[in-house]
Specification:
Keywords: Signal. The chain is α+β, with helices and mostly antiparallel strands. It folds into 2 domains: about 325 residues, no CATH class; about 35 residues, no CATH class. Helix 4 packs parallel to helix 6 and helix 6 crosses helix 7.
């Protein structure tokens, strides 16, 4: 709880210092940035139960996957003098996001902060020519940011009815900039600023084969409704699907809740919106993501509702009655001073039910 308060306090101080400095120094004119040429584009994704697809080319099939499920404040990605993105992980889920954008010096020019599972930019983002777009539907909230000078795109997604609530963060940089950045998006380990408890003894209500079935339902329904045909999918997209399957299974185990499976679908959704296979410049990423976004978010909500109903129906049918073999019960009865033993035979019946539970 103390760490949560400290995290919130840091965000509030950052936000306040942004506004005080920018209102005094930057109201007179906006800064115009030149467009840097794009080299190969690299992507990092942090999602649901603190899973990381570390920085990798969007044009290759390779994407390392790791879990960072210890609670704590993590630096997700940072490039000195350009940006810094932090996440707060609690009970293995990403519950807070904070980003600071710099102008090539130590001076901050834009901030993004989450509060109560809503995420907003500071006013000075627009003043400094950084394009930030918020999109909301009844179920989802997304933020997309494009920073021309830094050759950086950030997209966050949040399911307002997520189980549990959490953020997903997507970061794109050019390869040359990625080589100069660090944080969870680089390397195979999880280094954090303050370790708290790590959840290791999970309650397990669902067998591994049942968890696999649940994830298959959610992912299959998504791919059938919103993705390209299998023969049209790139190797990079297929590798993303593989990682999402692993994340989905881990999320259900961690949360002990079947519909935690829905969270990782947002990773595939962003891939389809951005259309990574056909992206050649950094500026295209945000533009592609915003195209028909609201309509497609509504469609994603329908896929999740359909999958939820299908999973609930499957679990409700998983009721097995086991009749054990007859057992002999000996009853002792005392009559006056003489003991008489009466033997009787009973049948013991056990019913194992996987209930359809609601939250």
């Amino acid at each position: 709880m103390l760490c949560c308060i400290l995290f919130a306090t840091i965000l509030a101080k950052c936000y306040g210092s942004f506004e005080m400095n920018w209102n005094e120094a930057l109201d007179n004119s906006a800064i115009v940035f030149s467009t840097a040429p794009d080299d190969d584009i690299y992507k990092c994704v942090s999602y649901t139960g603190a899973h990381i697809d570390i920085s990798h080319s969007i044009n290759q099939d390779f994407s390392d996957y790791k879990d960072c499920q210890s609670s704590g404040l993590y630096n997700l990605n940072r490039r000195d003098r350009y940006f810094k993105i932090d996440i707060d992980v609690q009970r293995s889920w990403i519950i807070e996001v904070s980003a600071i954008i710099f102008n090539g010096t130590i001076r901050p020019i834009c901030g993004i902060n989450s509060f109560d599972f809503s995420i907003r930019p500071t006013e000075s983002c627009e003043i400094n020519g950084i394009n930030v777009t918020i999109t909301e539907t009844d179920r989802f909230e997304t933020l997309s940011l494009y920073y021309d000078m830094g050759n950086l795109t950030i997209i966050t997604t949040h399911n307002k009815f997520g189980e549990p609530p959490h953020f997903n963060i997507n970061i794109w940089q050019t390869q040359s900039n990625t080589n100069n950045s660090y944080g969870l998006c680089k390397g195979s380990t999880c280094i954090f600023q303050s370790e708290r408890s790590r959840l290791t003894n999970y309650q397990r209500s669902y067998a591994d084969d049942v968890i696999i079935l649940i994830c298959d339902i959610y992912i299959r329904n998504y791919l059938a409704s919103m993705a390209s045909q299998p023969r049209q999918r790139s190797l990079h997209y297929n590798r993303t699907v593989d990682n999402v399957q692993k994340a989905c299974r881990a999320d259900i185990q961690i949360e002990d809740w079947p519909h935690a499976a829905a969270g990782s679908l947002e990773v595939l959704f962003v891939e389809d919106q951005v259309d990574s296979e056909n992206v050649t410049t950094m500026s295209e990423i945000q533009a592609n993501f915003q195209t028909n976004l609201e309509a497609n978010l509504l469609k994603l909500a329908e896929v999740i509702a359909l999958s939820r109903a299908e999973v609930d129906e499957m679990l409700a049918k998983m009721t097995t009655t086991i009749i054990t073999t007859p057992t002999t019960v000996i009853t002792e009865t005392e009559i006056t001073s003489q003991s008489t033993f009466v033997s009787s035979t009973t049948v013991s019946t056990a019913t194992i039910t996987i209930p359809q539970v609601c939250r």
